[in-house]
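I can't quite decide. Please look over this sequence plus structure tokens:

:::
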Amino acid sequence: MPRPSLLAVFAHPDDESLSAGGVLARHASAGARTAVVTATWAADTERAAELAEALRILGAGEPRMLGYADARAPQSAPGRVRFCEASLDESVRRLVMHIREFRPDLVVTHDAYGGLTGHPDHVHTHRVTTLAVQAAGWAQLYPDAGAPWQPGALYLATHPHSAARALGNGRLVREGRAMYSVPDDWITATVDVRPWIEQKIGAVLAHRTEVQRGALPGRIAGLPQAERESLLSTEWYIRHDPVSTASAQTELTS
């Protein structure tokens, strides 16, 4: 059975590699169609070029960028509205266009906390994606955005409490920073991505701007290879069905 097509929607360049790089590489290596929509940063920035390199490593096609400004980096999209302050209706419509054009079996995005750090752009990306996945299948919503298409399932990239403890204490999340994780029994897909760990780490490190400024890719770059692989070799997801008739073709682990 062919692996289902996968569209990932994340807030910033590097989120796709950190949160779902293994699953993206896994699906692409099996011949599945994969793509990534990034909510923030303009297409003519250095970080967009780094995103293109990361997606090449993961086999996820060309960047699809909504082009909004990062909540904490106005230089990300000069003159553009911050993503969290943009019209919700317009943001959903623009993402619906990508869903209807790509026609994925699965969509992956941030969880409702926005991942471990709770970044406001991550949280808002979760909101917009959840709405867009539902709206994409409704013919009378956004009729100018393409023919209706209903993805079979939405998966939320997350961390269980047990894994979050291993990532804290200054290893990946800085000392004193709040961490947002979920009960272990909420996890519906635990994916061992060790066979694709080289691509995942390579994609993370392709975000050189973030490596240089000491953000999360930079902290990963500073770890011994064995520790990098240990910390990044598993990805966790919560399945959220937009419809009640999902088939086996929409399993992330199928």
